[in-house]
Amino acid sequence: QKKAFIFDLDGVIVDTAKYHFLAWKKIATELGIEFTEEHNELLKGVSRVRSLDIILELGNKKVSQEDKNKWLTQKNEDYLSQLVDMDASEILPGVFKVLQFLKEKNQPIALGSASKNARPILEKTGILSYFDAVVDGNDVTNAKPDPEVFLIAAELLKVKPEDAIVFEDSVAGIQAANIAMMTSIGIGNETILHEAKYVFRDFNAINQSFLEDLIKNSNP
Ligand code: G16
Ligand code: MG
């Protein structure tokens, strides 16, 4: 039986969610907008452009397109400056073990990320070769919770959406997987990710028999 295993990037494979947060927090502060970790949940998995709009909505603020572009550039430069020294140590716990296991079982693996910086991150951390397909923010027009990114990934892996399994740390990403009729697996807090079919604290909490069942069963 062949399934497709689709991994989100930020907050699932690498611990970059914190860098996104810090960069947005700085901008919110400059704009005089309160921005907490709780607000930040709304931004996870969401495109850069939409993220800025959400922050402006939170602060009831309107700015010109020119200013928006300025903030977007600043956000990305700040974020990228955090990634300069990035290496395999930024890979989250248990990720390698799961990728390795799926490879041994000949299961196709894809990346499904909203980020336009996904490829350099996979390269820097040395895990690009695990992925049979990479779909990121440069390949889609509709951001999560739209399922486009995951549907393209399943198509590239030549697997039906019902046979795809998605690992996600964001509410928007879980919703996208559910809309696509894929099996959604939340990585993180089970209260925040309650819409997911399963939730695990991290990949170390996922055992091999659970993965074997996913491979064997039709959409459980
Ligand atoms: C990620 C993050 C989001 C970020 C988005 C765009 O998505 O979760 O916080 O805003 O990508 O990233 P960039 O500014 O690098 O293009 P994912 O889907 O990998 O979690
Ligand atoms: Mg994410």
Kindly describe this structure.
- With 220 residues, this protein is of the alpha/beta class.
- It is built from 9 helices and 6 strands.
- It has helices at 17-31, 37-40, 48-58, 65-83, 95-104, 118-124, 148-156, 171-179, 208-216; strands at residues 4-7, 109-112, 133-135, 164-168, 183-187, 198-200.
- A 6-stranded parallel β-sheet has the order 3-2-1-4-5-6.
- The protein starts with a strand and ends with a helix.
- 40% of the residues are buried.
- The mean pLDDT is 95.
- It binds 1,6-di-O-phosphono-alpha-D-glucopyranose and magnesium ion.
- 1,6-di-O-phosphono-alpha-D-glucopyranose (G16) binds next to helix 3.
Distance N to C terminus: 14 Å
User: So how many helices?
Assistant: 9
Going by helix content, strand content and strand pairing, the class is alpha/beta
Tell me the β content: 5-15%
Overall shape: it is globular
Query: Which small-molecule species are bound to the chains here?
Result: 1,6-di-O-phosphono-alpha-D-glucopyranose, magnesium ion
Helix proportion: 40-55%
Could you list the spans in which at least 5 consecutive residues all have pLDDT below 50? none
The averaged pLDDT comes out at 95
Major sheet size, sense and barrel closure: 6 strands, parallel
Record field, number of beta strands: 6
Radius of gyration: 17 Å
- Largest sheet: spatial strand order: 3-2-1-4-5-6
Along the chain, the helix and strand elements come as: EHHHHHEHEHEHEEH
Summarize it.
It is built from nine helices and six strands; from the N terminus they run βαααααβαβαβαββα.
